[in-house]
Amino acid sequence: MLAFFSTVKDVAPWVAMGLSIAALWISILNYRRDKADLRAWSEYSLDWEGFHACLRVNIVNAGRRPIILSSWAGGELKTGRLRHKKLVNWYGTFFEPKNSLTLTERQTYSFQLEADEIIDVLPDGDVIEFHDLWIKDTLGHRYMVKDARKNLEKLRQWKAKQSTAHKTGS
Questions:
Q1: Phi, psi angles (nearest 5°) of residue 17
Q2: Global pTM value
Q3: Where does the chain cross the membrane (predicted)?
């Protein structure tokens, strides 16, 4: 076996192949690190007296390239066959009326939704109640907001509790 690698002519192709595989691996790692990476999560916020609650949505560009966000949207889910949840209706809002929102590397953006804002009336008269949230960029990629379903449910429960407290208190 060692007799095969006795000359430089025998070793050179193997060294070249190893170097080319290493270069390919490094270029793949650089490509993955160099792209835009959006992370979005939600937080349920309740004031210390319990009189005000909201859902705060935080967005950060964790990648190295700028990302241009066009809109955020909320969707209504219905349970279908075999308890499979499907999106039946959605409603979106643009970040900026004239131009989109640009996030550079490590830049953050936050907005909050009040309890009255998770229910909306569509132009055709349908009422939509948000069960999930996502962010959309100008390339059409959809980024789901982490913990949105859980926190929207908490906000809905708080709103129901407030409305029953007002009805019994009046």
A1: -65, -45
A2: 0.72
A3: 12-31
